Amino acid sequence: MITDILSIQNLCCGYPKFQLSNIKIDIPKGSFAGIIGPNGSGKTTLFRAITGTLEIKSGKIRLSDKNLQSFSLRQRAQNIAIVSQFIETGDMSVEDYVLMGRIPYHSRFNFFETEEDFQIARQYMEMTDTWRFKDQLMSELSGGEQQLAGIARALTQQPQLLLLDEPTSHLDITHQVHILNVLQQLNQEMGLSVLMVIHDLNLASEYCDWLILINQGRVHTQGAPEEVLTFQNIEDVYQTVVVTQNNPLSGKPAVFLASRKVIKDLQIKRNETLSI
What we know:
By secondary structure, the protein is α/β, with parallel strands linked by helices. The chain has helices at 43-51, 73-79, 94-99, 115-127, 143-155, 173-190, 201-207, 225-228, 231-238, 260-275, and strands at residues 4-15, 18-28, 32-36, 56-63, 66-67, 80-83, 161-165, 193-197, 210-215, 218-223, 242-246, 253-257.
């Protein structure tokens, strides 16, 4: 029985000035997983290796126990859907944009959408609340609405794995929560495996059930949020003093920062107490 949607073994890849080394990751099937880590730690490099846009030097990436390198472009698009950080809009309607997700299922000389394509597109546009925009141009939508359209398009590929590159990084808190709620619903109700790169540790903790913490081109730790987001791990990797406590509603770990002034004041009070 296949228990991992994505398994990465001894992966090495990168660029002349930066390399991922001996990456080992196992993401359980049906997970809502997040890749976290400081700027320059290797999150985007790992993401590009998984999507196939960066050639790997050694190691293997397996999707549902099948070697991803053996997939054709068509097979890859039918099994993995990608939502980029910035959506390339163009002058097309939202419905036409979403329908482009059906291209991997078209035969070689089929240039027109079928009735099934339209039904599938409508299903996921309604699920992501973008059907109401179907006749508008993509360029007329807000950043959050474009992200939702990008997710709808990715879902029309009917993938095993949905990959997202920082889907909430340039959005306000309302759109961040809305998009992550949609992803969580897709994960829970459809069993869709989701893997996203995300900067915000509190959002990662609240929505993800599996986290991979990357630092200096290596996996520092991976597991459930309560295993990964300890103050020791965060301080080791981010070199920043934090306090972690459980969210009283969800029980997930929440990360609190301490400014330099607060730390200095605490040190002064501690020294005063010791001197008494």
